[in-house]
Amino acid sequence: MPVTLVIGAQWGDEGKGRIVDYLARQAHLVARFGGGPNAGHTVRVGDKTYKLRMVPSGVVAGVEHCVIGPGTVVSPAQLVAELDMLAFNGIETSRVWLSDLAHLILPYHVELDRAAERERGKQALGTTGNGIGPAYVDRVARVGLRAGDLRDMRRTRRTLYERAQALRTQGVKVDLDVLGAELEAHAQRLAPHIRDTVVLVHEVLERGGRVVVEGAQGTLLDVGLGTYPYVTSSTTVAGGAGAGVGFGPREVDCVVGVAKAYLTRVGGGPFPTELAGPQADELRSRGAEFGVVTGRPRRCGWLDAVALRYAVRINGITHLALTKLDVLDSFYEIPICTDYAGNEHWAWPFRVECGATPVYETHPGWLRPTVGAHAWDDLPFNARQYITAIEARAGVAVSYISVGAERSALVVRPGAPLAGAATAGP
Ligand code: IMP
């Protein structure tokens, strides 16, 4: 069972990129299974920071194959720009593969996304404005274009013509000459990267290779199980990984859930443990909580163990990675939400939508730097107590703890998946 899944256990931005970067050092293939350039995965190596939106974070570790899977939606223009950025920084991109089954995000999807947000006014979802929702709508409505369609631009131009006719009735004008020419240029540039990734993944699995599958966004943004309608348009939970890459559940041996030591969200929607005022400002500034994709300040709050337990259950999380513990180094007291008052028989998304009132358990802070810790025993006693309390509430062990932005600032506990991975650079 050689597949390890890395799943965001909160509202995204948990720091999945750095955990994938660590695990990828023993993997033969890293794949993305869903979402699109709404994701922003940051990997920091020395003084270099890589901000990835489509290409799996394993590319920085120099993993043999990086796959953008069939369940994703991809903007050809953005992918070309990202490949150029990586190549410019000396990162090898010749084995970045785009599934021919992945759907394309085209400029009219971006236009539709932004227009829908404007129409929602005060009820805006706060999307990243990258056309994610409309691209998934086209996929489900069976009118989308896939990366494999770029192999036959004559047929693709005909499909675009039909789409343009339909879009005109929605008030969206598509300049087919401009779009066709742009797409043709991107098709040429991406041609060496587009392939049947399903067979590739299975070839790797059949030769006993190890596959790491990288989730995008987070569990609580899942289109079905998250805080609907304040969610993204794809499946973000572990169950979507097989469908989004093309393998069965028996291949998976570990599900690593990544959670911050506190909680953030961007965009609209309920957030029971959200803070306002100086504590929120302190979390935001210490944690550099600004969106990678949009630059928006993130909403900040205390760790919600009810939501985390929900995430552990629906993903089958076997190990937790707790990130950004160092951000809490300056707090005298650190509350954890252990329950909500009322509506206990409602599904979690309805509980929070209806204004759940959090019940807190407060832990003493440790008030000293955790940066530089490499082992569990290096962490202050109160930090270890805090983590132990999270494990008890979540019902699963915390196997990784990040204590700084740099790649090596990671405590790996015995029993963590692939804990033998080297910490050297690519
Ligand atoms: P969309 O995915 O751009 O349609 O945005 C829908 C919701 O998901 C918005 O609240 C976004 O802020 C949120 N979202 C989408 N991608 C991410 C992500 O990678 N991190 C955090 N939030 C995200």
Briefly characterize the structure.
With 426 residues, the protein is an alpha/beta fold. The chain contains 12 helices and 19 strands. The two termini are 26 Å apart.
Largest sheet data: 10 strands, mixed
Q: Provide the CATH topology of the largest domain.
A: Adenylosuccinate Synthetase, Chain A, domain 1
**Poorly predicted tracts of residues:** 422-426
**Secondary-structure arrangement, i.e. CATH architecture of the largest domain:** 3-Layer(aba) Sandwich
CATH superfamily of the largest domain: Adenylosuccinate Synthetase, subunit A, domain 1
Which structural category fits the helices and strands?
A: alpha/beta
Give the percentage of residues in beta strands: 15-25%
Number of strands: 19
Broad CATH class of the largest domain = Alpha Beta
Count of separate structural domains = 2
Q: Round the mean pLDDT to the nearest integer and report it.
A: 93
Task: Quickly count the helices.
Answer: 12
Order of strands across the biggest sheet?
A: 9-7-5-2-10-1-11-15-18-19
Helix content: 25-40%
Overall shape: it is globular
Bound molecules: inosinic acid
Termini separation (Å)? 26 Å
The radius of gyration is 21 Å
Your description of this structure?
The two termini are 26 Å apart. Helix content is 31%, strand content 20%. The chain folds into 2 domains: 3-97 and 195-412, 3-Layer(aba) Sandwich (Adenylosuccinate Synthetase, Chain A, domain 1); 103-193, Adenylosuccinate Synthetase, subunit A, domain 2 (Orthogonal Bundle). The chain has 12 helices and 19 strands. By secondary structure, the protein is of the alpha/beta class. It is globular. The chain has a 10-stranded mixed beta sheet with strand order 9-7-5-2-10-1-11-15-18-19, with helices on both faces. Residues 422-426 have low confidence and may be disordered. It binds inosinic acid. Residues 11-13, 38-40, 125-128, 130, 132-133, 216-217, 221, 230, 232-233, 266-267 line the site of inosinic acid.
